[in-house]
Design goal:
The protein has helices spanning about 5-30, 35-65, 75-105, 110-140. By secondary structure, it is mainly α. Bound molecules: protoporphyrin IX containing FE. Protoporphyrin IX containing FE binds near residues 109, 119 and 120.
């Protein structure tokens, strides 16, 4: 059986980003209920899946040609706007997650909390737009 990695990797990638988003949402829910250990575990899991996503993404980038969006007109404009904002925010998100995590692990929770209020919603936006981009690129008729 031949495995068609070129068509499977985007699915794997999107699954990884969605799983990281689920743990992010769980982590935010846990801290709202003051369940610190559950919050810690969820956020470390979310970060692990985001790192796996990045590894698969970089592998794809070097192995395969990028798939270009086939849509035209208004849909294309919308796609490019989503892709642009997703890419810029994803690049800022990487260091932001690391600093947010480092502050928590150093038990500097006052500053962790301050930055986390930016990191968490930005992470959520990147996850949702990541899924939207996958859908528009591969499943839009
Ligand atoms: C990148 C990973 C993480 C993100 C995005 C994140 C996100 C958040 C968010 C959104 C809050 C609530 C902020 C608010 O009050 O509005 C928070 C609070 C908190 N987080 Fe994290 N967190 C992460 C990792 C961790 C880890 C690893 C720990 C380890 C114990 C931790 C411990 C805490 C604690 C103790 C608070 C409560 C701080 C306070 O209210 O004084 N977080 N975090």
């Amino acid at each position: 059986m031949t495995v068609h990695w070129e068509s499977w990797l985007p699915v794997v990638n999107t699954l990884l980003i969605v799983i990281s988003g689920v743990f992010l949402a769980l982590g935010v829910m846990f801290i709202r209920r003051r369940r610190i250990q559950a919050h810690r575990r969820s956020m470390l899991t979310a970060t692990t899946f985001a790192a796996l996503f990045l590894a698969v993404y970089v592998t794809r980038y070097f192995l395969f040609d990028p798939k270009l969006f086939a849509g035209e007109g208004l849909v294309r404009g919308l796609y490019l706007a989503i892709l642009g904002s997703h890419t810029v925010l994803a690049m800022i998100l990487g260091p932001l997650v690391l600093v947010t995590l480092a502050r928590a692990l150093r038990q500097d929770f006052r500053r962790h909390r301050k930055l986390a209020r930016v990191t968490a919603p930005m992470w959520g936006y990147v996850v949702v737009t990541g899924w939207v981009i996958y859908f528009m690129l591969y499943h839009l008729p």
